[in-house]
Known about the structure:
Chain A is of the alpha/beta class. Helix content of chain A is 33%, strand content 23%.
Amino acid sequence: MSEALTARTITITGHGGDQIEAYLAVPDDGAASRGSVVVIHHMPGYDSSTKEIVRKFAANGYAALMPNLYYREAPGASPDDAAATVRANGGVPDDRLVGDVAGAAEQLRALGGSNGKVGVIGYCSGGRQSFLAACSLQLDAAVDCYGAFVVKPVPDGVPLAFKPIVGMARDLSCPLLGLFGADDKMPAPDETAELSAVLDGLGKQHEFHTYDGAGHAFFSVDRVAYRPEAANDGWQKIWHFYGRYLAR
Amino acid sequence: MCTYTTEKIDIAGSGKGSEGWFALSDATVYFDHPVHAMAEHTLNIDFRNPAKGPSARVAVELTAESARALVGAIEAALAAVPTLVG
């Protein structure tokens, strides 16, 4: 694999027909057929470290697209300022998230070389949103990286609009890979175990891994939460999972 | 962990951001992952004026120990001038 790629900022049609910013990376490998991934950024926003993740997917043979979920509130603002604004407003509404992921998936399917298969991956708040998207849209594979509030409600006093969405599990449209930290409190291992049990009961295909010695945000290479052992193994799990469900 | 817990208060005063001074209207306070500080979690304060846009923000990320020391320093400074405040 050459790992050559082209990356750029584009405009896509998101929820409600809104034109929003998105970051696209496509392999320069000449492949006639490839899978695609919608990347959902973490709560700190549409930042350079998550754009690096988008490029990582392209370097590994997938077209990848990350919508800027905070574009409406803060067009052109720095990612941290945009994230502060959206945090103060209670987060991204669920229906808007689904519409934006749908728009991104449609954009990816229309790209030359697409095999028609689209996966989704999200980190932090994006982990919950990845599950939400996979329960709301027809997708081919979903990865939830330490998403909280899927099963448990937001604690009292937390001004976020997120509601538990475990009740949507029966509508999960694709296999789900969950990557979690044993030291995380949101989501804590008991919450992810409860989600796994619900999916077992519904016969929904899923694969969860909880890493000892890792907490929230262990994939974040630019933060002290980074845990290379967990992250490296997690990436291997992702390549295997997407290779099985998206690449062919 | 990502605590998500956010306290939001109305404030009056001014702050100096990337484009100079501006009037402040609110502050959000939360203990969560920092953007820049090299700590797992920090006490973060955003002094803001949303009416002037997302960039009208003065941000600090403090270790919990530093934040507590700051609270004490603020209380001490205000206590020293009781007739001028409140």
